[in-house]
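Design a sequence for this backbone.
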């Protein structure tokens, strides 16, 4: 799986004898990072890239609507992430962190590193 950044979201389906629609597609946001599905031969032949868009479904979009999203060593600043958990899950998470002798944040960062295919830094 790879990640891509949206650089274009104009409507791309045009019908003969109709003016070009300059509207934006509602399921892509310029600058947003999306997960791309493995490209099939048919996708390549059509010049498309299958992306999980804002609807959560995977659709074929023009490949030139995206650029690869790669690790940038110059942008290593940390940003907060907020999640909401039930009291039960929160307590379990705290218990797991105590048992591992780690903070909850360290436990979650470790979990992310183990499960996502992130570049080494």
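Sequence:
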């Amino acid at each position: 799986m790879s990640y891509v950044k949206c650089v274009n979201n104009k409507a791309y389906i045009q019908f003969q004898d109709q003016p070009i629609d300059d509207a934006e597609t509602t399921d892509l946001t310029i600058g947003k990072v999306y997960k791309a599905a493995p490209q099939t031969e048919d996708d390549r032949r059509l010049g498309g890239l299958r992306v999980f868009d804002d609807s959560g479904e995977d659709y074929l979009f023009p490949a030139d609507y995206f650029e690869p999203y790669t690790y940038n060593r110059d942008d290593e600043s940390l940003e907060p992430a907020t999640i909401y958990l039930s009291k039960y899950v929160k307590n379990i998470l705290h218990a797991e962190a105590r048992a591992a002798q780690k903070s909850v944040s360290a436990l979650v960062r470790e979990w992310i590193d183990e499960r996502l295919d992130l570049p080494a830094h």
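Residues 109 and 115 are 10 Å apart (CA to CA).
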